[in-house]
Specification:
This protein is of the alpha/beta class. The chain contains nine helices and six strands. Strands 2-1-3-4-5-6 form a six-stranded mixed β-sheet. About 30% of the residues are buried. The structure holds zinc ion (ZN).
Length: about 220
């Protein structure tokens, strides 16, 4: 009950401090609909809030959050493709000009997958096992390429490889690839370090993440 009371307190604070002074903004958004220019695909992790990281307000970002900020490849219809549906709507419905895949340090899902917790014989929940197996190839590559690395370093490698893998999977959707080729859509990889607040951007030519704080 105490937790719900906190949520209610938070709502009242939002209504007084954020909604009331910006009532016109909300009214305009309600009347004219949303027209965000950017989709962000982030992790469910409570510490990585895309609107906070990008200083965004209502109507600015079309945000999808899932475990480990993963994008699956384009697969045949038949299952419930929540992430693919959000990408579909962002691109074909809203016509966003940019998609940002936002990875982060200390990702619990990626750490567990790296540790082998989601192997079929070790459990971890039937849905998350299947979901994290999207990183099966990346996990194998990271482990093979970094013999003797400390677990924290391996985890960072896989967190960043996961972002790159998701960028590749985004391009497997025809409607994404066509717009990228036409220059009407750009896809970006980013990586947020929770402890330092540092945001890094993926440089696809250098094939590495570079801090935006230093730029
Ligand atoms: Zn995460």
């Amino acid at each position: 009950m105490r937790n719900v009371a906190r949520l209610l307190d938070g709502y009242r604070k939002f209504h007084t401090e954020s909604f009331a002074p910006n009532r016109e903004v909300f009214e305009t958004l309600a009347r004219h609909g949303q027209h965000p220019r950017t989709m962000v695909i982030g992790c469910c992790d409570s510490r990585v809030e895309p609107s906070a990281v990008f200083g965004a307000g209502p109507g600015d970002l079309f945000i999808l959050r899932n475990v480990a900020n993963l994008v699956p490849p384009n697969e045949p219809l038949g299952d419930y493709h929540g992430t693919s549906a959000a990408v579909d709507f962002a691109v074909n419905g809203l016509g966003v000009s940019d998609i940002v895949v936002l990875g982060h340090a200390g990702c619990g899902g990626i750490k567990a997958y790296l540790d082998g917790m989601y192997d079929p014989d070790k459990g971890g929940g039937p849905f998350i096992q299947k979901w994290m197996s999207l990183l099966k190839a990346a996990r194998g590559t990271v482990i093979a390429n970094n013999p003797g690395q400390a677990p924290e370093a391996l985890q960072r490698e896989l967190e960043q490889a996961g972002v790159v893998s998701s960028l590749g999977n985004l391009m497997s959707f025809d409607f994404v690839a066509e717009r990228v080729a036409a220059g009407t859509l750009t896809i970006h990889g980013a990586y947020f370090d929770i402890a330092s607040g540092d945001l890094q951007a993926y440089d696809r030519h250098a094939r590495r993440f570079e801090s935006l704080a230093e730029a």
